[in-house]
Specification:
Blueprint lengths: L6 H8 L10 H10 L5 H8 L3 H29 L2 E5 L8 H12 L7 H12 L3 E2 L2 E2 L3 E5 L5 E5 L6
Antiparallel strand pairs: 1-4, 2-3, 4-5
């Protein structure tokens, strides 16, 4: 089935535009096949290249996507009207009250209750949070529409 996929149609339906995308056309093709379960060897045969080249193209595509997501997260953190810096060694359980207080001052409503907010911070911070302890400085942003963003931050130097 995957061998009969019409990659041009898949890309068209997904709205792929090589002029505005961070992906090359070839990267988009490889991802379209891979997301539908096609083996790299089958893709290589279909595209007339090696499996190693398909692997390299896929890796580059996923790296480009990761960089694009990071860039968007950075831009969102910059434009968020509410920004809370959480210092290392802070208790994760204190974070919701800091966020709510800052949002109240800015007139922004948070879309999450305290337990959901702590989970979001913990999940998005990854290794920066261990148990209840924030191990690495974090920057928590809240957008005008109440969406919460979490970024690892470099602590301010004095």
């Amino acid at each position: 089935m995957s061998e009969r996929l019409d990659v041009d149609e898949i890309l068209r339906r997904a709205g792929f535009d090589a002029e505005t995308s961070v992906l090359t056309r070839r990267q988009a093709e490889v991802l379209a096949f891979r997301e539908r379960g096609t083996a790299q060897s089958t893709i290589a045969e279909r595209l007339g290249t090696s499996r190693a080249n398909v692997s390299s193209i896929e890796g580059s595509a996923r790296e480009n996507i990761s960089k694009a997501r990071e860039t968007v997260a950075f831009a969102e953190a910059l434009r968020a009207p509410v920004r809370i810096e959480v210092e290392p060694e802070s208790d994760l359980y204190d974070v919701p009250s800091w966020v709510y207080e800052a949002c109240d001052e800015a007139g922004v409503k948070v879309n999450q209750a305290a337990p959901e907010l702590m989970k979001r911070v913990s999940d998005e911070a990854g290794e920066a949070v261990k148990g209840r302890t924030v191990r690495t400085a974090l920057l928590i942003g809240v957008t005008h529409d109440g969406e919460v963003t979490v970024r690892k931050s470099a602590p301010e130097e004095f």
